[in-house]
Amino acid sequence: MTTIHLTVNNQPHTLTVPPMKRLLDLLREDLSLTGTKEACGEGECGACAILLDTGSGPELVNSCLIPALQADNATLTTIEGLAPDAALHPIQQSFLQAGGAQCGICTPGMILATHHLLTQHPNPTEAQIREGLSGNLCRCTGYMRIFESIRQAATETAR
Questions:
Q1: Predicted model pTM
Q2: Which three-class secondary structure state does DSSP give residue 4?
C-alpha cells in the first residue's frame, strides 16, 4: 500500500491505495466520482478521460491506464469538477442542446476532450475538432451532433 496526495476537482485528498490501482478505480471506488466511465478498459475509447496536471499543465489522459501512484501530488479534473455548482458548464449545455450526448458512456470523456481542445484552440477548425476527439469513440452517433456541440461550445465560451 502507498499513501498518495492529490487534488481532485479542487479538493485535496490523502489516500492509501495499492500503487498499481488504476486511477479510474480510485476515482470511482475511493472518491465516489462515478461520472468518469469505464468502457473498454484499454485506453482505446476515451470514456475514462480526465484532465491530469502533474505540474506542466493539464493533459487529457485515459484514467484506466494511469496507476494511482503516478497521480501523487497531481491535480485532476473529472466531469464532476468541470461545473462544481448546480449550473451546467457551457460545454455541457451545448452537448445537451445540440444532441451531442446520447447514451452517456462517452459523454464525460467527450466533454473533457472538448474542454481541453477549446483551451488550446478557442475557435477550432473541423480538422482541429477531429484531432481533439481522436482518442474518443462513440457508438451511438455519427459524430456530427458532437461536432455541432463543440462548435456551439466554442461560440458560447468565447462570449
A1: 0.93
A2: strand
